[in-house]
Amino acid sequence: MNLLVVMILKGVGNMILHKQFMITYFSTKDGKTITRKATWTEGCKYFTSKVGNHMMTYFDMDAQGYRTAKSSWTVRYL
Length: 78
What we know:
Blueprint: H1 3-10, E1 20-27, E2 32-39, E3 45-48, E4 54-60, E5 65-70, E6 74-77
Antiparallel strand pairs: 1-2, 1-6, 2-4, 3-4, 4-5
């Protein structure tokens, strides 16, 4: 398991409701690294997919919708 993911999953309680942050992760769908301006809302969550991937659903501020990062990601508060 990726060490970064383990550290983030242990920090679930550390996400601050409605505080903006930048999230960066590799998108397998697009084949590139994605950085988005996001916020943590009541609809956001951490979970494990049926095939065992670690996932994080966040609210994308620019697209005004929910997105999901898979496997590993970094978060930087603004």
